[in-house]
Design brief:
- Helix 1 packs across helix 2, helix 2 crosses helix 3 and helix 2 packs parallel to helix 6.
- A hairpin with a 5-residue loop joins strand 1 and strand 2.
- The two termini are 20 Å apart.
- The chain has six helices and two strands.
- The protein has a two-stranded antiparallel sheet with strand order 1-2.
- By secondary structure, the protein is mainly alpha-helical.
Length: 172
């Protein structure tokens, strides 16, 4: 339990550090923009409109935090399952990166992509509904993504504790 909690906390610290780094990079040569800055928002009909960043910020942060938790839980499961750190690192990198790419780029997966948690690891495409428009899948949205990520995190935590319990039984 403590190991997963530490992983989630470290993941959140890294996430907020990256947000701060992006803010600092954006400040070079300009000033801080307001939360009323426009961002392009897509609809399923194919029309676009501009909305303020403030209207999408909460959804973005929720999906970002749930996505970081998914990655932390997945790496924790892989680290319990594998003995070598480098193997765990490369398998985790290939699984997360590969599945993120596969879900968005392979057309036959577009019909089931709303059920795959790796669809929601790019939260800006979800909250602006860009991914929903480009794949013509109306079920790829914030609410469905939140549900899928929560269920996936619970399943991965259960698998983690099952592997941990099983490994203690085998050692004894």
């Amino acid at each position: 339990m403590l190991r997963l909690l530490v992983g989630v906390i470290v993941g959140m610290i890294v996430l907020f550090f990256l947000f701060g780094l992006c803010l600092l990079c954006g400040l070079i040569g300009s000033s801080v923009g307001g939360l009323q800055a426009p961002i392009l928002f897509y609809t399923l009909e194919g029309t676009t409109k501009f909305v303020s960043i403030a209207s999408l910020l909460f959804k973005f942060l929720v999906l970002s935090i749930l996505g970081i938790m998914l990655i932390v839980n997945l790496v924790a499961v892989f680290s319990r399952w594998m003995n070598k750190q480098m193997t765990c690192f490369f398998v985790s990198l290939i699984v997360v990166g590969g599945l993120m790419w596969c879900v968005q780029e392979i057309a036959p997966l577009h019909s089931i992509m709303q059920f795959l948690p790796f669809t929601y690891l790019n939260p800006i495409q979800i909250v602006t509904q860009e991914l929903m428009t480009t794949t013509s899948n109306s079920q790829v949205n914030f609410m469905f993504g939140t549900i899928i990520l929560v269920i996936s995190n619970i399943l991965l935590m259960g698998i983690y504790y099952w592997i941990q319990k099983r490994s203690k039984e085998v050692v004894v």
